[in-house]
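ok so i was messing around last nite and threw this chain in just to see what happens. nothing serious, just curious
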Amino acid sequence: MTERQWHHIAGFRPALLTKKQMLAGLYITDFHAHLRGKSNVLPNFCAEDQASEFFQQTAPVFERLARLSEPVHSSLIRWFAMNYRGKLHRHIYGNLAQFALMETLRLFKTYDVRCLLKSMDRNGIDRAIVCSLEPFITTQEILEAVAPHKDRILVFASVARNEPHPVQYLQKHIESGEIAGLKIHPQVGQYACNELYECTKDVVALATEYDLPILIHTGHIPASAIGGLANGCGDVRAVAPLVKAFPHAKIVLAHIGWESWRYILELAQQYKHVSVETSWQPPAIIRRALDLLGPHRVLFGSDFPLFHQGMALSMMRQAVTAREFVHVASTNATYILRQRYVDTTSKSA
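result:
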């Protein structure tokens, strides 16, 4: 295949893959996205913080201003978050955590499944994986929201620290065939660092048993001022025992660790069953991941709606060659998801 043909398949133009290419398994896949459920409110998302007097008085004004300024502030904020992640900057972000929560809630309320599909079409993305965020956004809510779009949207289920029977909770979704993988978010799930392994090892074992990928959030969200997130683990080193204990698991570490990308890439170098996902990283770090791990262990993700798919795709495209793009944006996800892609393709063909 010529380099020109690779460029055509890799989508170095704003167009979807052809039907022939899709049937051959060359889907452009966003491996990391989020949505709210059908409801336009998120009452359980850091409920105590939303109930505070400061939040009640400030949020309505903030939302109106943010809607007007979004075309400007959105890209600027994300650019800063990608390029400035040192201790001082994370301290500043932490002091602005309540405003970050307001913006997160606004984005979830604004960008529903129709917006996701429009964004996918606009950016030439064929498939997206939407992860639930237990306990705030449940797996069942996501399944109901994306039900009419199973040919384009797959779901990863999650579980929170307060779920008394996590394996049974997840197994029912697995056995129903409704989900394509699992997600662990140490901070949102409210896992303390010293208990993350014990509380989630059975979940990783379950994913391994069913040959499902498991996406694990890595990166310290500076949100100590948010009560709903303050107790969750932000130390990326806490995921290492899970990685070491399950050499046959298909583990994907989200965001390449954000500010802790050096540690995550070092960990992934040691354990060949680990891949990384690219959202919230600039081209230089994505390039470093490709050089250290190879193109077969890097997956494109956006973290929509918290990060724009177009911007995430641009960061990744700047880091890869045309041949690498095919792996990072398409075939790596197809391989990790395996039969679930084959099944949905055959039903929609």
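not much to say yet. The chain has a mean pLDDT of 90.
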